[in-house]
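Incident log, structure service

09:12 report received: a user says their structure output differs between two submissions of the same chain.
09:20 pulled the input from the user's history:
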Amino acid sequence: MTLSLRDTKRSITEQTIVEKAIALFKEHGFDQVSIKQIAKAAVVSEKTVFNYFPYKELIVLAGAQPQLNTLMDTIQKQIDEITEPTEVLRNFSMSLAELCMSDPATIAVVVSEMLTLDPERLAMAMRYIPDPNPPVRTVMTLARAQGKLRPEISVEYATEFFLSSVLNSIRTYFASGHIDKVRPMLNVTLEIFLYGAFIPPIAK
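09:34 re-ran on a clean worker, output below:
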């Protein structure tokens, strides 16, 4: 589909705002950068920035979108190849850990916005964040079909519990300043989840 001139201009303006803002965030820190500075760097008005992004966190999400899409595409590929469910969940957790270590400031904002209790704010955030629920739900459905998910645990509950556990674990260690502990704690979180939700394999 060919974009109209107006849509093309809008896309370019949005991309420019994101690129200039992300560069400023990396140089000065998220909290130290104002909308006025972003507008000046992008050569647009402050009103234009607000029209595209009502609050700064959305700019971070827009900048993180390509990385997050790549992560979810990788998980979806593993699902399509019918990779063993626990392996997919482990890969998902460790991939998140890699993102946390490579760009903690960005992931801190992403996790915070995904766990917001404000439904309108969450809806705006999910315009930029690929929804992890469908692929993870597919993994749980596959585990159910393979007889690996405990019969008393529903696919929906397993999906919600897994994602909330992972995201809350990340937020907790970011808040405490112990980013270096995110990887081992995500691994522990996953093992606790698997122990409670999955039927242990029969020892040979």
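09:41 both user submissions now match this output. Likely a transient worker issue. Closing.
09:42 reviewer note: The chain is about 75% helix and 0% strand. The chain has a mean pLDDT of 91.
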